C-alpha cells in the first residue's frame, strides 16, 4: 500500500520548487506517517535550496513541522494514530560516542534519515530524499518514531510547528547553550524566526538590556514585541553602538543568528571582556572569520556555536509548551505570514529581503 500526496519538490540544487505528487510507502517497522498541519519556512531551507548547505536531490525540504499521526508501523510504541506531534530534524541515535557523552544534539547519526530516499515522484518513480530527514513541505511524511514528539494539550497544532526548529533553536541557545542568567545583558544579531525566538528566550530568562540588531530598520517593531529593549541598525559600527548601550563595556552575551563572518565578528566585538558569543546561524564554508592572536588573549572572550539549541527535543518541547500555555512564549507573533504550499518561493524572497518573521504553511 502507498499514499499519494502533494509536495513542493526541489528537483536539483538551484532549481525552482515544483508542486508535484509524490508516493509515500506505508510506515515500516518503527516508522510513522504524519499528516502535516503546518510547516515553517526556515533560512536553512533556503540555504539547502541554493546549495549553501548540501542536500541530495530531488528533495522535499521543510524541517519545521507539526501534524497528526495517521498510520504507525510495526513495533511503534511512542505514539498512536490520532496523536498530535512536532517533528524533530535531529533525532539522536542514543548509542554513538557523542550521545554517550550526554550531548545528543551532536549525535553522529542524527542525519541518517536524510541520506536515503523515502518516497518517489509519482509521475516517473524517481526516488526522493527527505530534507533533514523530515520533508515537511508536503501534505504527509513518513519518519522514524524517534523523530516525532507528542504535543502536549493546549498548544495549537499550527503554531506548534515552530517549536520544531526556530523556537527550540533560539530558546535553547539562551537556556541550554549560553545559560543566560537574570540581569545579564545580551545582543542578538539577525532577527528572522530564529533571532526573534532568541529574544523571547532572553525575555523569559530575565536578561537586560536586550539589544536587537538587524540590517533592516523595519525589524525594530517586531524585535521590541519579542523582548528587545534596544534596537540598532547593523552597519560597520554595530559593535561600537552596542558597547555604547552597555556603559561602554559590551554585553555579557551575543547571539549571532545570520550565519556570516561579518556578523560573527560584530557579535564578538560587541561583548565585554570575558563575554560569550553563541553562533546560531549557519554560514558558508567559503566565508572565513579572522582574529588576531593578541585580541584572543586580551579579551578572554568565548566563541562557540550551538546546534538545535543544544537541546533534547523530547525533554524541551514539553517545557516550551508549558511556556506557551502560561503565556510566556508567544508563538503567534513569530508568524508574520500564513501561506500555502505553492507560496514558498515568495517566503524565500521575503528572507532574501530581510522582511517579516516566520512564514508558516498551513495545510
Ligand atoms: N547584520 C544583521 N542582520 C542581518 C545581516 C547583517 N549583516 N544580514 C542579514 N540579516 C538579517 C536579515 O535581515 C533577517 O532579518 O538576518 C535575519 C535572518 O533571518 P531569516 O532569513 O528569516 O533566517 P532564520 O530562519 O531566522 O535563520 C537564521 O539560523 O538556522 C540558521 O540557517 C539559519 O543561518 C540561518 C540563521
Ligand atoms: Zn531550521
TrEMBL record:
Residues 14-361 form the Enoyl reductase (ER) domain. GO terms for cellular component: cytosol. The keyword Metal-binding applies. SMART domains: PKS_ER (SM00829). One of its GO terms (biological process) is formaldehyde catabolic process. Keywords: Metal-binding, NAD, Oxidoreductase, Zinc. Its cofactor is Zn(2+). One of its GO terms (molecular function) is zinc ion binding. It comes from the Bacteria. The keyword NAD applies. InterPro entries: ADH-like_C (IPR013149), ADH-like_N (IPR013154), ADH_Zn_CS (IPR002328), ER (IPR020843), GroES-like_sf (IPR011032), NAD(P)-bd_dom_sf (IPR036291). Signal peptide: none annotated. Belongs to the zinc-containing alcohol dehydrogenase family. This is S-(Hydroxymethyl)glutathione dehydrogenase / alcohol dehydrogenase. It comes from Streptacidiphilus jiangxiensis. The lineage of its organism: Bacteria, Bacillati, Actinomycetota, Actinomycetes, Kitasatosporales.
